[in-house]
Design goal:
Layout (H helix, E strand, L loop, with lengths): L1 E2 L6 E6 L4 E6 L9 H18 L3 E5 L9 H15 L5 E5 L4 H10 L9 E5 L2 H8 L1
Parallel strand pairs: 3-4, 4-5, 5-6
Antiparallel strand pairs: 1-2, 2-3
Helix pairs in contact: 1-2
């Protein structure tokens, strides 16, 4: 697994052997991420999806401390899910601890385009990886 570039709010790893992209949210302990930061981080994610064309994605949102509004959920579906859904086969998501953050993540992946991908939510990273591959 190799590091394929980080942002202020994410770390990103690629495992070519199993076509797995790992995307982990980081650095939100103080809630300093703005809506623009959130969008930019996801645009970086979609660039990685387009470049590496993974079959599987593990999204770790455990450290996500950002509330995803209804408007942002729609933006994610139109600008991220619509592009990634034809490429990805499966997505495993490690849920954040906060209830409102969990709800936002779940709702983003309940949008129309995201429903085209096989998605499951996990608390345990090892179980998520086992399900993916």
């Amino acid at each position: 697994m190799i590091n394929i570039g980080n942002t202020n709010f994410s770390t990103n790893y690629w495992d070519e052997n199993i076509s797995l992209l790992e995307y982990s949210w980081i650095n939100q302990e103080n809630g300093e991420m703005t809506e623009e930061d959130f969008k930019n981080a996801l645009l970086h994610y979609i660039d990685l999806v387009l470049k590496y064309k993974p079959n599987f994605v593990l999204v770790n949102t455990k450290k996500l401390k950002f509330l995803i509004t209804v408007e942002l959920q729609t933006w994610v579906d139109e600008n991220i899910n619509k592009i990634s859904s034809p490429i990805l086969k499966k997505m495993a998501v490690l849920l954040p601890e906060g209830f409102m953050e969990q709800l936002g993540v779940e709702q983003v992946l309940d949008e129309a385009e995201a429903k085209k991908i096989s998605v499951l939510f996990f608390e345990d990273e090892q179980k998520a990886k086992e399900w993916l591959v």
